[in-house]
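Justification of resources, computational component.

The compute hours requested in this renewal are based largely on the per-chain cost of generating structure records like the one below. Each record pairs the submitted sequence with a full structure-token output. That output is archived, and it is also reused by downstream analysis tasks.
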Amino acid sequence: MPLPIFSNYTVIRELGQGGMATVYLATHNTLGHHVAIKILDKQFAYNQNIKARFIEEAKKLVRLDHPNVVKVTDFISENEHVAYVMEYINGKSLRELLNAKRLTDAEIENYLNQMVVALNYIHKEGIVHRDIKPSNFIIATNGTLKLVDFGISKSIDASSVDHTSTSTNLSMGTLLYMSPEQIKSTKDVTYLSDIYSLGVVLWEMVMGKVPYNWNELSAFEIQVKIVQESLPKTNTKWDEYIQIATSKEESKRTIDFDLVKDTFKVSKVDTDQTVLFSNENIDNSLNDPNLEDPNEEFNYLAFYFFIILVVGFLFAVLVSS
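The structure output for this chain reads:
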């Protein structure tokens, strides 16, 4: 099959294929540096909903700028191709790494640190990834981990259009890493679903295998287990983190890893959204003079009650005299 042709880029070879797109290694004709080009497969380019989703993915990525998130640099629409250009990451996916070896605790800590920071960043930018799994983390040769593939991500923005689903009951994602609420409806998930998926990824990094066996269980049986059962214990120091991150109750899910440099914490707030805090911000908020004192109203009520008692006592004395 001939390689795609673009005016500003020379395609070198195929890097990989997904459900609806193919990624190629290419060189910028003027600058000479390597890039990765993600091209929407032609059979989907004429589907307006899929095309809109692909373009939306590019728009989300182009505004992201973080060392642990893949960077998009250009968009292409020529020669019947719809594609976007992103940085080329010379390395292996976490999936490839897990297939090749068992990770040490030090390696798990290193990669988990970077995963938490990446999720913290995209969540603060108003994006839910919805497909957190080992193959969507690429580890560069210098050890930097990057989050990739925002094909079914969701913007938490009332003005944005979600092209990733057409039905409230539609389930999208990778089953083994889905949260219970994602099993029921991908459209309505929040940041807390990404945290659940990260907990499953952590379980796999610790155990060196996926938590559910495709050879023994049907897709339906796996769905039931995800919704009803906790992940099996690993009998390691990671169990506490895994059990909290994968709690069936969304409000109980947190990222509270002491190993993370700033100890990011996830707290549930209004409209089922979450915001990440660092210990420093939490400590400073306790001393913020602009914050209301929760005991202030109680102090005023106690004072008024005391005045009423005093007035009542004086009135009783006057009457008796």
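Residues 296-320 form the longest helix (25 residues). The chain has three domains: 9-87, 91-284, 293-321.
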